[in-house]
Design brief:
Blueprint (H helix, E strand, L loop, with lengths): L1 E12 L3 E8 L6 E11 L5 E4 L5 E7 L2 E13 L37 H8 L6 H14 L1 E2 L10 H7 L1 E2 L1 H14 L4 E8 L8 E8 L2 E5 L10 E7 L2 H4 L2 E3 L3 E12 L3
Parallel strand pairs: 7-8
Antiparallel strand pairs: 1-6, 1-14, 2-5, 2-13, 3-6, 4-5, 9-10, 9-12, 10-11
Helix pairs in contact: 2-4, 3-4
Length: 261
C-alpha cells in the first residue's frame, strides 16, 4: 500500500536556537521510500548526520521569530506486520554485540524494577514471542490511553502508578517489561495509517530469533501500513525535535493518507 505522510511543525523563538530534528524516514524492512521532502520557512541552512541507531538527524539553528518545517514522505508499506508465535527467545550469549544495550535500563525504561511484574504477566506463556504478546496485551488492557496525563519526564515506572498515558508511555512500559525478561526491546516512532486521533506515533519492537518484531500496545490487533522514522532505546533517543534553548510549539499537523496512483 502506498502511504503519503507529512508532519508540519510551527514554532516561535525569542532568540536563535540550535535544534536537531528527526523527521526523515529511510527505506528498510517493511517500507520502501519512494519520495521524501523537507522544507523550512524561512529557509535555513541545514546539515544531516546518521546517529548511533541509524537514524537520519537534521541539524539547524532556528531563527528568532516564527519558523515552520514540514516533512513529507511517500512510501510503499507492508499492509501487515510479521507475527510468529513460534519465534523463541535468544540466549544472551548468542546475541550480537550491538544488541546488548537494548537489554539495559534506560532513561524512561526502568526494567530493573519490573522483574517480578514481568514474570507474573508471562508465567503461563512460552519463552519468546508469546511472552512479548502477553506483555502487549497486558499493557493494552491495564493502561488507559488519555492525552494530557503525562509529560516529557514521565517514565514507565510512573505509568504503573497512574495507569494512564499515551503511545510513548505504552511503548516504554512494553520495552521495560521485555528487558526485565532479558528480551532486547527498542522504541520506534513514525506514522500509522488509520490512527485516531492522527498524530506522530510510537510503538516497540522485540528482538527474537535473529530479527525484530513489531508490537503496538495501543492497538487491539496487529496493524501494518506503518512508516518507521526513528529507532532507539527510549524516547530520549527518538525525539522528533531536540531544542537547545527556549522554543514554543504553536502547531503540529500530521497527515497519513493512502496514495492512489
Amino acid at each position: 500500500m502506498l502511504i503519503q505522510a507529512s508532519c508540519l511543525l510551527d514554532f516561535t523563538c525569542t532568540t536563535q536556537v540550535p535544534t536537531t530534528f528527526m523527521l526523515r524516514a529511510r527505506s528498510g524492512v517493511g517500507q520502501f521510500v519512494i519520495k521524501e521532502e523537507l522544507h523550512t520557512s524561512p529557509f535555513r541552512t541545514m546539515t544531516e548526520f546518521t546517529d548511533n541507531y541509524g537514524n537520519l538527524c537534521q541539524r539547524i539553528v532556528l531563527p528568532e521569530g516564527n519558523f515552520r518545517i514540514e516533512s513529507s514522505v511517500l512510501a510503499d508499506c507492508m499492509p501487515t506486520i510479521e507475527v510468529d508465535h513460534n519465534a523463541g527467545w535468544t540466549a544472551i550469549e548468542y546475541l550480537p554485540d550491538f544488541m546488548l544495550h537494548y537489554l539495559l535500563p534506560s532513561r524512561y525504561c526502568e526494567s530493573d524494577k519490573m522483574a517480578d511484574l514481568a514474570a507474573e504477566i508471562t508465567k503461563d506463556f512460552k519463552q519468546g514471542y508469546p511472552q512479548v504478546e502477553a506483555i502487549r496485551q497486558w499493557v493494552h488492557s491495564n493502561i488507559r490511553y488519555q492525552y494530557g496525563t503525562t509529560n516529557s519526564s514521565t517514565s514507565a515506572w510512573d505509568i504503573l502508578s497512574t495507569k494512564t498515558g499515551v503511545c510513548r508511555d505504552f511503548a516504554h512500559l512494553g520495552i521495560s517489561l521485555c528487558r526485565a525478561l532479558d528480551i532486547p526491546a527498542r522504541m520506534v516512532t513514525g506514522y500509522l495509517y488509520g490512527l485516531k486521533p492522527m498524530d506522530l506515533h510510537a510503538w516497540f519492537e522485540a528482538y527474537l530469533e535473529g530479527r525484530w518484531y513489531c508490537f503496538d500496545a495501543t492497538q487491539t490487533e496487529p496493524k501494518g501500513n506503518r512508516i518507521n522514522v526513528a529507532y532507539g532505546r527510549d524516547a530520549a533517543d527518538v525525539a522528533f525535535a531536540s531544542h537547545f534553548g527556549p522554543v514554543v510549539l504553536n502547531r503540529m499537523e500530521v497527515k497519513v493518507e493512502e496514495k492512489v496512483m
